[in-house]
Amino acid sequence: MRYITILIMSALCCHLGHSQIYEVGVFAGGSNFVGDVGSTTYIAPNQLAYGGIIKWNRSPRHSFRLSFIYTKLQAEDIKSKDPRRIERGYGFSNPAFEISGGMEFNFFDFNLHSGDKKSTPYIFTGLSLINYNNFYFDNNRIVDVNHESSTYAIPMILGYKTTLTNHIILAAEVGARFTFTDEIDGSVPDGRWLRPTHSFGNINNNDWVMFSGITLTYTFGRKPCYCDF
């Protein structure tokens, strides 16, 4: 009975030890938009993006991650390489706020309690929610409908991180968000009665939102116990 009690307590110790390895920090970088207006270059940040990030490191190979990013998505046809878009001359600026949650996978072990300098590439995916303003184009003029919408998106992030100290981690990453909407650039109005006369572009392709930047996080928590049973 005593052996079973020790075994259960040791298992709880391991669980609690692992559950207290956290990271909290900031994100700073740029954003760009890829859709029916503006450039079609995927990595071309043109607006400031900033926010916060929280991680719950469950093992040296994976962690649960939550982030918040604010930016103003901006695109201009004159910066496109498509002559038809350049001639059209549309442009927009749309405030956007993203909440993203999911799992981050490390290519190599990233043991934050080893005491050694650690570095690894990583990938992240999960689910995002992006809030943005609705508008549409009418005779080369933006019509703001004073209405906000939200869309889900699939984040796909590739990055590289390294420890600066035992508690400070620096990472650089590039991420694409495939959204479930085609409304962010005004090419498809939110109102169904407007779509037949005011929609343009490829209605079969949804919008993409790109974020590129760095994160600086502080890690804290008790060193996890390692069971010998």
The parts where pLDDT drops under 50 for at least 5 residues are 1-19, 224-229
Query: H/E series, N to C?
Result: HEEEHEEEEHE
Provide the β-strand percentage band.
over 45%
Strand order of the largest sheet: 1-2-3-4-5-6-7-8
- DSSP E strands, number: 8
Question: Using only CA atoms, what is the Rg?
Answer: 22 Å
The gross shape turns out to be elongated
> What CATH architecture would you give?
Beta Barrel
How far is the first residue's CA from the last residue's CA? Answer: 16 Å
- How many domains comprise the coordinates? 1
Q: Give the count of helical stretches.
A: 3
Short description:
With 229 residues, this protein is mainly beta.
Question: How would you portray this structure in words?
Answer:
The chain is 12% helix and 55% strand. The chain is mostly beta strands and 229 residues long. The protein has an 8-stranded antiparallel β-barrel. Strand 2 and strand 3 form a beta hairpin.
